[in-house]
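Input record (Table S2, row 947):
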Amino acid sequence: MSAHQQPVSAFWWLHQWSYLLFVLRELSSVFVAWFVVYLLMLVSAVSAGQGPYEDFLAWSGQGWVLVLNVVALAFVLLHAVTWFALAPRAIVVPRVPPWVVLVAHYLAWAVLSAGVVWVVLR
Amino acid sequence: MTAFHNIVVVGGGGAGLRAATAIAEANPLLSVAIVSKVYPMRSHTVSAEGGAAAVIADDDSLDEHAYDTVSGGDWLVEQDAVEAFVREAPTELLRLEHQGCPWSRQPDGRIAVRAFGGMKKKRTWFAADKTGFHLLHTLFQTALSYQDIVRYDEWFVTKLLEDEGGVHGVVAVELATGRIETIIANAVIVCTGGCGRVFPFTTNANIKTGDGMALAHRAGAPLKDMEFVQYHPTGLPFTGILITEATRAEGGWLLNKDGYRYLQDYDLGRPTAEPVLRSMELGPRDRLSQAFMHEHAKGRTIETPYGPIVHLDLRHLGAHVIDTKLPFVRELCSKYQNIDPVKELIPVRPVVHYMMGGIHTDIDGATPVGGLYAAGEVACVSINGANRLGSNSLPELLVFGARAGKAAAEYVRELKTGPRSAVYAQGRDEERRLRHELGKRTEGTERIADIRTEMQTTMEEGAGIYRDGDSLDKAAVKLHELRERFDRAAIDDHSSEFNTELIALLELDFMLDIAQSIVACAGRRTESRGAHQRTDFPKRDDEHFLAHSLVHHSGRVEYLPVTITRWPPGERVYGR
Amino acid sequence: MKNTPKTITMQVTRFRPGEDEAPVVQSYEVPLRKEWAVLDGLNHIKDHLDGTLSYRWSCRMGICGSCGMTVNGKPQLSCATFLTDYAPGPVRVEPLRNFPVIRDLVVDISDFMEKLPKVKPWLIHDGEPPEGEFLQTPREMDEYKKYSMCINCMLCYSACPVYALEPEFLGPAAIALGQRYNLDSRDDGAEDRRDVLASAAGVWACTFVGECSTACPKGVDPAGAIQRYKLTAAVSALKDYLLPRGARR
Ligand SMILES: Cc1cc2nc3c(=O)[nH]c(=O)nc-3n(C[C@H](O)[C@H](O)[C@H](O)COP(=O)(O)OP(=O)(O)OC[C@H]3O[C@@H](n4cnc5c(N)ncnc54)[C@H](O)[C@@H]3O)c2cc1C
Ligand code: SF4
Ligand code: FES
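Output record (FE2/S2 (inorganic) cluster complex):
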């Protein structure tokens, strides 16, 4: 049987918003990896003492590093929002309507973020 | 190409799947194959909506189910078969429950039952209003766990190999490639379903073209009671989509153009707000469809571009009942008719639904031809007689599918000899014929769609809800002419891969055979009984016709007396 | 309206193996009637204009799952999609995406048919079934009911970019059907299904695009089934890690 294999168009991911988001999420792995590397660099700088730590801060303040980190943050947020969106479908609690699960996630997020802000700005 | 199996089951619907699993359980060493022209889960059983009858409620009894079935069938029923049927139906439905079928439940977790037309007790099990869908998918998914059952999915059987009074296999075409294969088997079970497509307006799917009836007929098995064609009183106009009887069991009303519950004028009882079993809207299908014709004659139906209609009123049931018990009805109405039954009336008209007749079998699904068995709608045991009760067909598939499977397994166990070489030669001849069909049908003058349409209108006009000698004679002449024109029919498609036009041609060939059998039997039966209503012979005539008609391929019709065990013929009483 | 019969153009993708190197588009004029589904248009073509057009259909009531096609770029049941919704046209009709095309609008779904048995979509019950029915309350049934509604129409596979890129992926419907039995109160087979469902080609291949659930004509919500199983799989993996053998489940 000589079935025809339907080719996938090179721009298939532009055909639908959900497909674009999917590709962006796949792409985001690079930026998540970057965050890990960045964190390791931070840890090594801290362990090396005051001087290297300050150098690291200065380096981080450069325009391109800032831009990179902002972009990476955006991708991580995309991930978080995606997970939150699917949470009500993954976590099915008897007698609890799905929206409660969703709201609980955002609430937990807000509380944790507030905690972090408190620690940083204290 | 040749393949070998002990038993070939033709058809993967409810009956075919049940037969195959019964064989695998009876004797795991046998090689079983299911050959089906569509993937099994696409078989027409999937469309059944309302439910499956079997005695389970405390206030019910096997005798009552048997009596309802016998009287519903206007006594043209094999009573020993009915007794076996009502006895085994509960076991079969429980078996499905144990396999995961999501039968609707009572609040305490036990099986729920609903009322159904012609049944004196509530005994119809249901899975909302997708009973056939759940039943078929449960059977199919369970069958996947039997790794030894071989499936030929999307293979079309064109011939049964018959030699010395026995059947020895089939010839089939693989749709995807056009490959033709001879499949040798010691026994064949035909489970190909009904033939509603012989008529223009039907609830039946495109695949219901009576193939198995014609195949068995050509192999020498007589067809039984072919004149009994069931019209369901409530189909949607244009599409013919079924609005299940469960709508009326839940309390729906049939209204004529004046908003009047017209069934009260036809000896079906008095209208009440709550549904009463075996009364009014819960009368049997033949009587309800006939009442529609009378309303039409009195000018009390509503004209539409798709013929006259009456209304089915569910509005008083409310959204809750409709959404829990009849969700599919709401979906079908809104998707296909753009109507919301919670707020609006549903237009309905009678529509060809079910074939009571079929391949003549005994109580174990055996036909008079050695090694040939049949079960399901294609067969006629007969438990349905002159009129099937709604929800008796699904349990019939299971009970008689299983019986045929076991009987076939037993038959091949005792078989000593294999097929003669003549059988292989037949397979080669059939292959040659099919190649010839593909090749020669280039310069014909007729289109198959035209012949099909004319056959369908002929059947509607000549052998519809009401028939008479004259209309049937005319139909017979017309069918003869169509048979001749069929020989001159051309097809556009001469390729081998997924050639659906070739399949349509072969199906039309089968349907023309079936149509002729229906008309021949209807012409001979000069009485009115159940779904067979002759305006020239309006009375039931037990003296001459308490007998099954058997039509042979030669055209000869003979009569076989009905087996009566405990219920002598009586009057069919509904609503009083 | 009577004297100017309305028509609509259907642009149908044709592929005749052995004849066409690649699919070609062929246009047909068909009557535009308010009750006509896309499938009725195709039947008109087949019966009156061109008998060589091939496609699958049977029930024409949205329950057999045969008639999936790509209509104006979206996977649809052609028997449940109306021509008038695309007026004035043209309507583009293509085969379902992500499957090899056998002929015209007929695609090869044998990949799914091979994957389906792998999730063991049948009831696995330890020990003998009861004499009568298993008791199951309506609430227990609601747990799995929607996953049991799958008609195997393949629209979800056609909508899924993961399946397009990773043909190994079990796919939405197969996973939903595995979950259908896992969540059934009568079933004890979750453990037997775990290796397949929790594999890399199982739920973990899915990155929650969600298009399967959008495409599904029967409200099955395969995306939900997958996400839910991810949690189940993660929790049981964790249990395997932390708990001694006897205390699992
Ligand atoms: C809309 C509708 C609703 C219904 N509702 C109910 C109900 O609520 N309760 C009830 O009891 N009954 C109901 N019925 C009746 C019942 O559904 C059918 O009688 C029953 O499903 C028939 O099953 P079957 O197994 O005999 O055949 P089918 O399910 O029709 O299967 C036939 C099989 O044969 C195969 N086949 C046919 N020809 C060939 C060939 N030439 N080569 C290879 N394979 C072939 C097909 O592929 C298919 O697999 C309903 C019927 C309809 C139409
Ligand atoms: S999950 Fe929905 S879209 Fe996918 S095959 Fe099943 S019914 Fe079709
Ligand atoms: S024809 Fe059966 S789903 Fe469309």
